[in-house]
Specification:
8 strands, about 25% helix, alpha/beta, four-stranded mixed β-sheet, single chain, globular
Length: about 140
């Protein structure tokens, strides 16, 4: 069996801020930009890796979600506890310096973790936790 990860989903609260972060700061390609009824879905991914994407979605648009659930999701997003993703780079310090220089909220500077990885953590404009580990 050959299964790969094609796309992961993260919510966004502001499509322009999400584009500025993922495209302009992280250097991802914009693969799709789809609007519908005042909402916008953005598909981005690392340059040169067309089979791996992140779909940035309006939060809580599923019609089966209740008003209370929508409120909980909005609260969790504001605290940065709703969603996140793990990225990797061979140049952690250079990547972190670029992100920090752009004024992105830093959660953790590059750190050697006790479990053997070196990583950092930031939040995207919607509050999603983005951990970036160093490839060795």
């Amino acid at each position: 069996m050959n299964i790969t990860i094609n796309a992961s989903f993260l919510p966004h609260t502001d499509p322009e801020a999400a584009l500025a972060f993922y495209r302009d700061i992280l250097g991802f390609e914009v693969r799709l930009d789809v609007g519908h009824g005042g909402m916008r879905w953005l598909t981005v991914g690392p340059a040169g890796q067309p089979d791996t994407s992140i779909v940035l979605t309006p939060p809580a648009v599923d019609p089966g979600i209740t008003a209370d659930e929508r409120a909980t999701i909005a609260e969790m997003m504001a605290k940065g506890t709703y969603a996140g993703i793990l990225l990797a780079t061979p140049e952690l310090d250079k990547t972190f310096d670029r992100i920090q220089a752009a004024g992105v909220e830093v959660v953790q500077e590059p750190t050697e973790q006790p479990y053997g990885l070196r990583d950092c953590a930031v939040r995207d404009p919607s509050g999603n936790l983005i951990r970036i580990q160093e490839l060795r």
